[in-house]
Design a protein that fits this description.
The longest helix is centred in the N-terminal third of the chain and has 18 residues, at 4-21. By secondary structure, the protein is mainly alpha-helical. It is built from eight helices and no strands. Keywords: Cytoplasm, Cytoskeleton, Microtubule, Motor protein, Repeat, TPR repeat. Kinesin is a microtubule-associated force-producing protein that play a role in organelle transport. One of its GO terms (cellular component) is microtubule. Its main location: cytoplasm.
Length: 167
């Protein structure tokens, strides 16, 4: 519905309850921090989003195995915030961590691997390293071609990203 203030209010209430009933490093707390970060991200408040995403990651690092997909999602979220704040070196580092975890924990043609390759490609494009950007976008497309039907919108996004690099 796009009512971010209302979503934020409910997510904050959920967090309050979880903080009272769960240990401080419980993964469900990380989930609440992630949800609040997502709302701030969608409202364009990137510093606040980053703060909540980092809290989620900190809890996940304490409570989950190092190759858990939720860690990859947190690194991905942090990378997206850094990208939107034009901090490309930090974005690249976060996206590379997400990719490394996903390569260990997901099957080789999982769509989340494609998303990681895509995000790394976008950062390299912003850094002006077009050969690297192209390589990552082509890998993302290859994975998507094996994961999705030929008319899936994610394939169109990959073709557009490759076109952007050539442009």
């Amino acid at each position: 519905m796009g009512d971010y203030p209302k979503a934020l209010s409910y997510y904050e209430k959920a967090l309050e309850i979880k903080q009272q009933s769960l240990p401080p490093n419980h993964p469900n707390l990380a989930s609440s921090y992630n949800n609040i970060g997502m709302v701030h991200y969608n409202m364009g408040d990137y510093p606040k989003a980053l703060s909540y995403y980092e809290k989620a990651l900190e809890i996940q690092q304490q409570s989950l195995p190092p190759n858990h997909p939720d860690l990859a999602s947190s690194y991905n979220n942090i990378g997206m915030v850094h990208h939107n704040m034009d901090d490309y070196p930090k974005a690249l580092l976060s996206h590379e961590k997400a990719l490394a975890i996903r390569q260990q924990s997901l099957p080789p043609h999982h769509p989340n691997l494609a998303h990681s390759h895509n995000n790394i490609g976008l950062v390299h494009d912003n850094l002006g390293d077009y050969p690297k950007a192209l390589s990552y976008h082509e890998k993302a497309l290859e994975i998507k071609q094996q994961s999705f039907p030929p008319n899936h919108p994610d394939l169109a996004a990959s073709y557009s990203n490759i076109g952007l690099v050539y442009y």
